[in-house]
Design brief:
The chain has 351 residues and is an alpha+beta fold. The protein is built from 7 helices and 21 strands. It binds 2,5-dihydroxybenzoic acid and fe (ii) ion.
């Protein structure tokens, strides 16, 4: 396809425009919509219903064998603003992955970083560089860039979880690499406690001296699983500490650096008590949110989504958002904020 050909009423100028197009050049004075006063955002506010995701993932589980399509049975959330691309936002992939009992998804690795968040159920394991991480409701499990990962479900029940990857961002940077694992075989180990948690999950504020130096260069958290019992306790203590507070937010952090869990994605959990609203906010960068518990309404820009547990909601860049909790609401969110912050592009306004 050739470059766009611009038109003019003046013959000389038209000739110039034709010559420019032949040389794949475009005159800036004819271009609009490039330097907008505020972000021109294609990603749209959107909600995928958890009930629908569950039903369609289960149907895929009956009809589609695990070996078709990249060894992953995954339904990608495709934002209607992104021209049919299988992306939830301009920078993030979000999806649900479904494993029947006894199924496995063999090892591979890639430059896009991934995380798993469990909205319901338990009994599957993700192995990250061979370290088996159990997955249960409310747990966050990391698969940092270029770590080998595989999943298996030794339980009696099917299991579904949400995947979020920075794939669209890494693709925009032309930096996607993918490798199959060393074996086709799924490693079905099921240790109750991962090595990552044995080393880094011993207790609040306690880091193993023997391993501190080794992690200095790693751009991601050495702790690869954040357990719901810990998140829940921390949220409760924060709210208990301030009787006037009606909401609170925790950030999942790298215990080594105090920074975000991975260089491209920020993970947080927000709790809004029943009958309350969060303060309206807007920021640059997009968010993928998932409702773990409760129900209410999420206002995003000019749209209002009634939400219940299991729902996935997209908040596009620079859209004002606010949560109303009808029943106490726990909202997990992933954003690209670390990237915007590190590039000096992060902006936030409290409305
Ligand atoms: O589990 O390895 O949703 O590689 C998309 C790409 C999940 C995975 C996704 C992946 C995976
Ligand atoms: Fe993967």
């Amino acid at each position: 396809m050739g470059t766009e050909r611009f038109t003019s009423e003046e013959d000389d100028v038209q000739t110039l425009y034709n010559d420019l197009a032949d040389e794949h050049l475009q005159p800036l004075w004819e271009l609009t919509g490039l330097l907008t006063h505020e972000p021109a955002v294609s990603t749209q506010p959107f909600r995928w219903s958890g009930r629908t995701l569950k039903k369609l993932a289960a149907r895929s589980g009956e009809l589609i064998p695990i070996d078709r399509g990249g060894d992953r049975r995954v339904l990608a959330c495709a934002n209607p603003g992104l021209q049919g691309a299988p992306f939830a936002t301009s920078t993030m992939w979000a999806a649900v992955q479904f494993l029947n009992p006894s199924e496995g998804a063999p090892p591979h690795r890639h430059t896009p970083a991934a995380l798993r968040f469990v909205l319901e159920g338990e009994g599957a394991w993700t192995l990250v560089d061979g370290d088996p991480l159990h997955m249960a409701t409310g747990d966050l499990v990391l698969t940092p860039s270029m770590t080998f990962h595989e999943h298996h479900n030794p339980g009696a029940q099917p299991m579904m979880w949400m995947d979020v990857l920075d794939l669209p961002m890494v693709a925009a940077l032309d930096a996607v690499f993918f490798e199959e694992g060393p074996t086709e075989q799924v490693d079905t180990r099921t240790d109750p406690l991962s090595s990552s948690e044995q080393h880094w999950g011993g207790g609040p504020g306690l880091s193993p001296v023997r391993h501190l130096g080794k992690n200095a260069a790693a751009p991601h958290s050495p702790l690869l699983a954040y357990r719901w019992a810990d998140t829940d306790r921390a949220l409760s203590r924060l709210l208990d500490s301030d009787s006037s507070a009606s909401e609170t937010t925790l950030r999942f952090t790298n215990p080594f650096s105090g920074g975000d869990v991975m260089p491209t994605m920020r993970c947080q959990m927000q709790r809004v008590l029943a009958g309350n609203q969060s303060a309206p906010r807007r920021q640059t960068g997009s968010q993928v949110c998932a409702v773990l518990h409760g129900n209410g309404v999420i206002h995003v820009g000019n749209t209002s989504f009634p939400v219940e547990s299991g729902d996935i909601v997209v908040i596009p860049s620079w859209h004002t958002w606010q949560i109303r909790a009808d029943a106490e609401l726990d909202l997990f969110s992933v954003s690209d904020a670390p990237v915007l912050e590190s590039l000096g592009l992060y902006r936030e306004t409290a409305e």
